[in-house]
Amino acid sequence: MGAEKKWLYTLFSGAFITFLIFLSFISGLSSSYYYAYPPNKPFPSTIDHGPGRPPSFAYYISGQSGDSDRLFRLLLAVYHPRNRYLLHISADGSDEERVRLVSMVKYVPVIQAFGNVDVIGKPDPNTYMGSTNIAAILRAAATLMKVDGGWDWFVTLSAKDYPLITQDDLAHVFSSIRRDLNFIDHTSDLGWKEGQRIQPIVVDPGIYLARRTQIFHATEKRAMPDSFTVFTGSPWVVLSRSFLEFCVFGWDNLPRTLLMYFTNVVLSQEVYFHTVICNSPEFKNTTVNADLRYFVWDDPPKMEPHVLNTSDYEEMVKSGAAFARQFDKDATVLDMIDRKILKRDRNLATPGAWCRGRKSWWMDPCTQWGDVNAVKPGPQAKKFGESIDKLVDNWNSKSDTCAR
Ligand SMILES: *[C@@H]1O[C@H](CO)[C@@H](O)[C@H](O)[C@H]1NC(C)=O
Ligand SMILES: *[C@@H]1O[C@H](CO)[C@@H](O)[C@H](O)[C@H]1NC(C)=O
Questions:
Q1: CA-to-CA distance for 199 and 220, rounded, in angstroms?
Q2: Is 400 a pocket residue for ligand 1 (Cβ < 6 Å)?
Q3: Measured in angstroms, how far is the CA atom of residue 332 from the centroid of ligand 2?
């Protein structure tokens, strides 16, 4: 083919594929619920998993209507070719937004080559305080397990979050810990939550009505359960693959029983994984009591933590957390994190040891890559490593890690 014909061919096949994706999306006939990009370039480096290799992570990043730019920025900030990513704009967002997000994602050369980012095409509702949230998280975990057999940990993020370390830092520090550990902030000391969160019976209409967006409360309350202990904590988690298999495949009935019970509880994402893990003998000893996030509560606390700004930068960086929340869209403090920690330029992925291109003001070093199985920790890895060591030491010293 001549150069011109080849160009036309590429253009037409590109347009045709886009059209097919769009068609299957509109008709809802597609059996797959996500867009996948088959790699169209040969891998210059294969991805190795298992002992002796750095771990890899499956990220579920969720947002709402209007969040496509934030999701894209966060994706680039936490991107690494060895990881897997699933992006979700909840049902309140439009199909145009999802298609737009897909088109942003697909123009990143490394993502095109590694094909490790998907956008959910058939979204789930996101009822405020409702149980559809936990359904969406479990679905994401199941999808990520189906599309990628290699990852070790599952990380939940929202469009309002941002990393405080690079993926090389994360993989380096997590290389030295057991891969069956789960990071779940939890307590069985429920306090006021017992009467206000667990005992009230609520219904999430997002489960069965297309347009309802608020939970409603039944007049009755129910007694506290006595066949299991309720644990609560931060909704943000880092979970091992083995624990998620336990939750999703359900060979033991506990995860399913608790899912049915928590369907009618306020903010089920603050109780579900916590209660499942702490009531299962084979997993409770893998619980590290932390969520690895940095956030600050206003005084008095509101439903969501304080919106972080440049005044919070120093404390945030000293915290040794992996992620922070929450941020405003395009906040100046995010640019500070990009510049000082991630060394990331606008609209480009965070560089790592895998980037082999020459860095200059017009060149993205990450359009060429070498061995993606090598990681090189940066300065923030030290602080993060210290906080993980402390958590793991603490975990080691306890006989019952789920004790209150
Ligand atoms: C937790 O306990 C189970 C069985 O009781 C055991 O197989 C597993 O290795 C333990 N895990 C840790 C992290 O100690
Ligand atoms: C950051 O937020 C705090 C609390 O809302 C506020 O007092 C402070 O002035 C803000 N700092 C900047 C630089 O905007």
A1: 9
A2: no
A3: 12
